[in-house]
Design goal:
- InterPro entries: FAD-dep_OxRdtase_2_FAD-bd, FAD/NAD-bd_sf, KsdD_DH, Succ_DH/fumarate_Rdtase_cat_sf.
- The chain has 18 helices and 21 strands.
- A hairpin with a 5-residue loop joins strand 20 and strand 21.
- Helix 1 packs parallel to helix 6, helix 1 packs parallel to helix 18 and helix 14 packs across helix 15.
- By secondary structure, the protein is of the alpha+beta class.
């Protein structure tokens, strides 16, 4: 519900009602502050991108890990993070400090903080972003991906409840269709916000809303928090920021976030003196598929793959070790950008897709999202889960055939490019299948599958026993065309550990804070070049918590 405030003055203003903004706003209200929460979208978008997420949370040495026999520690997690991030710039000092603080929290109070708010986790811990490039290569050396029971909506629920309670008490005012245009400044401080009131719009969550001006607004507070997200929904900005180290930017991409994730808040903060850093660091997936039932334009879904699919590039060459499904996101992206094509392929069969394909997103996992235990257990009784079968039936990127020759013909027909040679693909499959049938031998991927199955979580729900992809008993052959899927900005507004925004010389801008993806999840890029997964939602929690607490402390001191 949108309210007309009785006053233009508040103790804290938070811009952006996604997870980071919700956490910042509720932390501030719990300290006694009167808070204004603004968002340019309709109220249906409360919670932002987190609503659509799988709910993955990075935890270290958790009870869930220990029950599965996983030995983890803060020291190991910190080492994994440092080697994965690859910090190498002068401006990485704050990012490195944020990363260390975050790992300590993930191994300390994070789970309890969430548990007290009613958040629970699925008992099987996922092993995302494994790396594979040696003992100190990038990646998680142990499983750390804890799926929230209830996925993204389940993670949001306690913060929405807290916000609604604060709203009912008059401590929190939420204004929708309020688009930030400018930060109000004076005497070296940020003192408020100005912007445009947009015309009401009944667009459902995620659907693009109008930008018709219906009025203006101006509100004041001694503390303003920017939590406006990144730029993954603005494909032109993604291409403009694309780094040369990842090759040329793709001409054709699918979007993993709605159009309103456009980077606009970053530009506004910069005009007020905020220092933007690491804008060329980004996190996009190579396993994107067009959503057969889209919510926003170019809506893409990410496949969370198990390790068994054969991965080939657009011309039919198998990807080199260790670029296997689920191992090294950015390494695979860099390699594929060097091929000159915007897509690649998985080749697999029905047995593999049934057990190894998970689809990222709350709406693609109705059993977990709905906290339906019986439905979760029923996954084991079907050969292909319903959401995956829907893509097999309707997805434009999914092809099925009985023979390699027929499958390759369909792949060439789909792209309109006669790039794939059936004999070449059959030869690659035969070489792979013969090793799968007789032991790992010299095939790194088959050895990786065998290794994965030593972890109980993977053996139970995420990997099939190595077998011939062409085995008729394993069901039809399947090809999936994979596109680049935009997701996260890893750089952003530089902040200190109190979430205070820093200027060009590294001094705090009085009254201005930043949280979530807008802050590179903390410090202007606490992931460095690469993420360990489960750290996007966690970064929103951690930086939003810090921003809300310190913004309210600043209010008390005024």
């Amino acid at each position: 519900m949108s309210n007309t405030p009785h006053s233009q003055h508040f103790d804290v203003i938070v811009v952006g009602a996604g997870l980071a903004g919700l956490v910042a706003a509720t932390e501030a209200t719990e300290s006694g502050a009167r808070v204004l929460l603004l968002d340019q979208e309709p109220e249906a978008n409360l919670g932002g991108q987190a609503h659509w997420s799988f709910g993955g949370i990075f935890l270290v040495d958790s009870p869930e890990q220990r029950r599965l026999g996983v030995n983890d520690s803060v020291e190991l997690a910190a080492l994994d993070w440092e080697s994965t991030a690859g910090f190498d710039r002068d401006e990485d000092d704050w990012a490195r400090a944020w990363s260390r603080a975050y790992v300590q929290w993930a191994a300390g109070g994070k789970r309890e903080w969430l548990h007290q708010r009613g958040v629970r986790f699925f008992p099987v811990v996922g092993w995302a972003e494994r790396g594979g490039s040696g003992p100190r290569g990038p990646g998680n050396s142990v499983p750390r991906f804890h799926v929230t029971w209830g996925t993204g909506p389940g993670l949001l629920a306690p913060f929405i409840r807290t916000a609604r309670t604060a709203e009912a008490k008059g401590q929190l005012t939420m204004l929708w269709r309020h688009q930030l245009d400018e930060l109000v400044t004076g005497s070296g401080s940020v003192t408020g916000v100005r912007g445009t009131v947009l015309e009401a719009d009944a667009a459902p969550r995620g659907v693009a809303s109008n930008r018709i001006k219906a009025g203006t607004f101006e509100y004041y507070a001694p503390s303003v928090v920017i939590a406006t997200g990144g730029l993954g929904g603005n494909l032109d900005k993604v291409r403009a920021a694309w780094p040369a180290r990842l090759g040329t930017p793709p001409e054709n991409m699918v979007s993993g976030v709605p159009a309103h994730v456009d980077g606009r808040g970053l530009d506004i903060a910069a005009r007020a003196g905020a220092r933007l850093v690491n804008e060329d660091r980004m996190w996009h997936y190579t396993e994107g598929i067009a959503n057969w039932n889209p919510v926003w334009e170019r809506h893409g879904i990410r496949i969370l793959p198990g390790p068994s699919s054969l991965w080939i590039d657009a011309t039919g060459n198998r990807l080199p070790d260790p670029l296997w499904p689920g191992f090294d996101t950015l390494g695979t992206l860099e390699h594929l950008r060097g091929t000159g094509y915007d897509y690649s392929w998985f080749i697999l069969n029905r047995r593999i897709i049934g057990k190894e394909f998970a689809l990222s997103g709350s709406e693609q996992n109705p059993d977990l999202t709905g906290k339906d235990v019986l439905a979760v257990l029923a996954r084991a009784r079907v050969d292909v889960p319903g959401p995956v079968q829907a893509f097999l039936d309707h997805g434009e990127d999914f092809l099925q055939a009985r023979t390699i020759q027929e499958l390759v013909a369909k792949m060439n027909q789909l792209t309109g490019q006669d790039l794939l040679n059936p004999a070449q693909i059959a030869g690659i499959l035969e070489a792979r299948d013969s090793i799968a049938e007789n032991g790992p031998g010299t095939d790194g991927q088959i050895a990786a599958i065998e290794s994965a199955r030593h972890y109980l979580g993977d053996k139970l729900v995420r990997s099939v026993k190595p077998h011939r992809i062409t085995d008729a008993k394993a069901g039809q052959l399947i090809a999936v065309r994979l596109k680049i899927l935009t997701r996260k900005s890893l750089g952003g507004i530089q902040t200190d550990l109190d979430s205070r925004v820093l200027d060009a010389v590294g001094d705090p801008i009085n009254g201005l804070y930043a949280a979530g993806e807008a802050a590179g999840f903390g410090g202007g890029g606490y992931h460095g070049y690469r993420a360990l997964e489960g750290t996007f939602l966690g970064g929103c929690l951690f930086s939003g918590r810090a921003a809300g607490r310190h913004a309210s402390l600043a209010w008390k001191q005024t």
